[in-house]
Amino acid sequence: MLRKYVIERDIPGVGDLGPTQLGEAASKSNAALGKLRGIQWQHSYVTRDKTFCIYLAESEEAIREHSLLSGFPVARITEVSGVIDPSTERKCELVSA
């Protein structure tokens, strides 16, 4: 079963990369993913010096293997235990009623 993870990567200056460079990074990641099973990249948030990547994976080990193949560092892997958004408040009100 695939679980959702947030992967924090320390990549100095990543926020200054242009579309071409980000596309090349995505291509590199996709090439590594093509060699693996049990892992899917959903999307990434890019900040000044970090990326926060959302993956579905069978295990943390699959994420670490992707890191080795792609060359992108892993600072932290956190499994997602749930999701909330602004509508969560309303859902709680409906359950309580």
Automatic annotation (TrEMBL):
Which organism is the protein's source? Amphiplicatus metriothermophilus
- Return the protein name: DUF4242 domain-containing protein
Q: Which domain of life is it from?
A: Bacteria
Under the heading InterPro entries, the entry gives:
SCO4226-like
